[in-house]
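Figure 2 data, in text form.
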Amino acid sequence: MNKGPKNWFFRNLANIVTLSAFPLCFVLLWVIISHRDQTVTILILVTSVFLTDFFDGKIARNISGTSKFGGAADRLRDKLLLGIMFLFLILDGRIHLSLKIITVPLAVVETALLVYWFIGLKKKMDVSTVKSSMSRFGHGQIKMFLLSIAILLCLLNIIIEERWGLGYHLWSTFFLNSIFLVSLFYAVKSFISHRIKYSRHVSAE
């Protein structure tokens, strides 16, 4: 008698993990707006959301299988998290000005990608990440991986500065800026890939 619900749970486990990130994102937004100085709390929340991104992919490949809903929710979760963290990077006074400047075009490209996500959803397209023909990873996945590292390092840098007085040295600023710039490159590549994909879909209608 329990076989049905158990099968349903495992079939949808990847989606459950993905959806669990949304309340975490809203808590993160509240902390950033109301208690931005709580950097450790922000780091814990961001890491938790990144872990859902890691585990839902593993589960989808090994247990639940992939689905259009899962792919759509996965991308929306990523966009929501990045939007919140871009807000933090732009507003927080502890972030180096050069990093704020790079964040602005990244936020613009991610907003454009979110618009394409909504357009694709409306047209009932597969809005999951566009895979590269040259690699098993899409441009968006590479961008997300790089931004995950950069955002975590940025938060760790703030914590180190506050606890041990080691501020943004030239090497750390250059390193973080480099990762963000490479992420911007892949974000633009991802935007181009989605634009081509959606243009082909419209042409085929």
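Caption note: Residues 1-5 have pLDDT under 50 and may be disordered.
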